[in-house]
Amino acid sequence: MSLDAAAAIPMPLVHTVELNAGIVDTDSGAQLYADWMWAPSSFDRAAVDRLSRLWLQALAGICAHVRAGGGGLTPSDIAPARLTQPQIDELQRHYAIADVLPLTPLQRGLLFHAGTVQGGDDVYAVQMQLTLSGELDPDRLHQAVQTVVDRHPNLVAWFCDHFEEPVQIIPAAPVAPWSYVDLSAGPDAERDVEAQIQRVCAAEHVAVSDLAREPGCGWR
């Protein structure tokens, strides 16, 4: 921390006391840097030293509160999305949220069409079917999908249109919607496998239209 009176600076101060703070990367990790400047005609060094100690104590209290599970998002955290604090609090009562983002014009249009389907067939919902050869390792495939979602959590965002402007909610702990369907077992094993696949795909196609309850991406 730097405490400097403004006497050596050949220009007037904008404020009686000024604080510039930031995080600096060092060999031992990120460090908080704070630079205090003040008008010596109004404050002496002892007063500013006490002010700086109180400021650090307040920061330590905030850190302790967050480590204990407190805290949460505020409107400035989610800019450029525009929600009030009560609206953010309402979302956080239902979701563990990492971020809230506004929708692009294309997303707005797709969300509108998904909402008009009401459990029907959304023509804008796209399915991709992949055929894998060789021995299948379901756990490894599942982990690969989860790794993609960990890197791109927007793939499993929820959408909320309850406010003045719709928003997408990025989960704090993204989970890839995954289910494993074994068509080689059960009473339908002897039936046409292709027909069973089409039934599974049709059911999934309908499910993704409810973007407020389910992420837009799923893997079956």
Automatic annotation (TrEMBL):
Q: What InterPro entries does the record tag this protein with?
A: CAT-like_dom_sf (IPR023213), Condensation_dom (IPR001242)
Name the Gene Ontology molecular function terms of this record.
Answer: catalytic activity
Which positions fall inside the Condensation domain?
Answer: 98-200
- Tell me the Gene Ontology biological-process terms attached to this UniProt entry: lipid biosynthetic process
Which Gene3D superfamilies does the UniProt record give? Chloramphenicol acetyltransferase-like domain, Nonribosomal peptide synthetase, condensation domain
Recorded superkingdom: Bacteria
**What is the name of the protein in this document?**
Condensation domain protein
- Annotated organism of origin: Mycobacterium xenopi 4042
